[in-house]
Amino acid sequence: MKNRILSVDIFRGMTIVLMILVNTPGTWSNVYAPFLHAKWHGYTPTDLVFPFFLFIVGTSIVFAYKNKETNAGTYRKITIRSLKLIGLGLFLGAFTLSFPFIKDFVEIRFPGVLQRIGVVFFFAAILFIKLDWKKLIGVSALLLIGYWLLMTLVPVNGIESTLDRAPNNFANWLDVKVFGTHNYKPDYDPEGLLSTIPSIVSSLLGIFTGLILTSKQKKKATILFGLGGSLLLIGHLWDFIFPINKALWTSSFVLVTAGWANVVLALIYYLTDIKGIKFGSVFRYAGANAIVLYFLSSFISKLMGLIKVGETSLHGWLFQKVYVQDFMSLELSSLLYGLSVVAFYCVLAYVLYKRKIFIKV
Questions:
Q1: Distance (Å, rounded) from C-alpha 333 to C-alpha 330?
Q2: How many CB atoms lie within 10 A of CB 128?
Q3: Among residues 348, 357, 295, 316, which one has the least CA distance to residue 95?
């Protein structure tokens, strides 16, 4: 696309690289704290990664659909892309090595990362096409406030609701009620049904950033820094009564993560698009085939966990034989394994980019 904003491509690629890194440590038993999700309330750098991707999905929607005529074909393409993403996610959740290569139905996880991306993309794209920016602000506020009220005021089985990980947590209860055994955990799913509602706003906030970047406004980096700081302030204030929580994708979590996304994107935009400093090419390559890299990394990682080598998996054997050394801590060994995986996919991204192979899902 002509006149691409380089910082957006770098941000997208950076996010997908980080998604791969935090998802593929050498061992989950030994991981440096910043590379782990918060146990429940609160957030770590790792908790920023997935909302960053939903955020940049929204920004990309602006580039794809702003000032373009829409017709039935447009909605069909949006729907097909959403279904493809959901289908790939369901495949990852269902695949196993034993014939017929599908888990027993009761064991298949229905929600997931790609499923959420598909659903969020669908609603964010439709809303962007149908509504102007003022109405989008109204929808965003309605969804965030509505979710807060649902989570704090609606009793569960006659018991006052809680935001802790408990049976009377409304989002957790609904996931168990609707999905049963098809959740990530027996009592909840981090990509659950109800928490998908506020995650749509993560993408809508990315749309507002896209509108700023494609506008004729001057000092766009300053505007994005200001927007990011404002969202961080409001989100952290809301945290006092509606805690920041990725598993529940709370409204405060939406604002805080979008705030950080704007700050990071503003910095990259200032350095690359304004100052013309060249860096981050590897991220640009990764961003060009972001979904493909994420799917491949998830699928191959799953394969390596399923293939047995003696009493352990291929993943475990490789980690123990190559990366576990007496002169290194297990945390460092685990990180080096993850960095090696990232390096492999960065090389793959480079090859695809240079050969002009862009696989759209």
A1: 5
A2: 22
A3: 295
Q: Residue 301: which residues within 8 A CB-CB, separation 6 or more?
A: 23, 24, 315, 341
Q: What is the pTM of this model?
A: 0.94
* Residue-level pLDDT at 16: 96
Q: Which residue has the tokens 């409304």?
A: 170
pLDDT at 241: 97
The DSSP call for residue 324 is -
Q: Scanning the structure block, which residue is given the tokens 């098809």?
A: 182
Instruction: Take residue 42 and report the two structure tokens written for it.
Output: 């609160």
Distance of CA 205 to the CA centre of its chain: 14
- Residue 175 to residue 197: CA distance in whole angstroms: 13
- Termini Cα distance of the chain: 17
Can you say whether residue 351 is alpha, beta or left, with left for phi > 0 and alpha for psi between -120 and 50 degrees? Answer: alpha
Quote the pLDDT of residue 176.
Answer: 94
| 210 in Cβ contact with 62 (< 8 Å) | yes
Residue 57 CA to residue 60 CA, distance in Å, equals 5
Closest CA to 136 of 231, 42, 79, 62: 62
User: Per-residue DSSP letters for 41-53?
Assistant: BB--GGGGHHHHH
Residue position matching structure tokens 């269902």: 94
Single-letter code of the amino acid located at 304? M
87 within 8 A of 24, measured Cβ to Cβ: no
Q: What are phi and psi of 156, to 5 degrees?
A: -115, 115
- Coil, helix or strand for 162? coil
Ranges of residues in the chain with a pLDDT under 70 are 1-3
Per-residue confidence (pLDDT) for residue 1, from 0 to 100: 41
Please choose, from the candidates 233, 221, 197, the residue with its C-alpha nearest in 3D space to the C-alpha of residue 271: 221
Q: What is the pLDDT of residue 52?
A: 98
Kindly report the number of other CB atoms within 10 A of residue 132's CB atom. Answer: 9
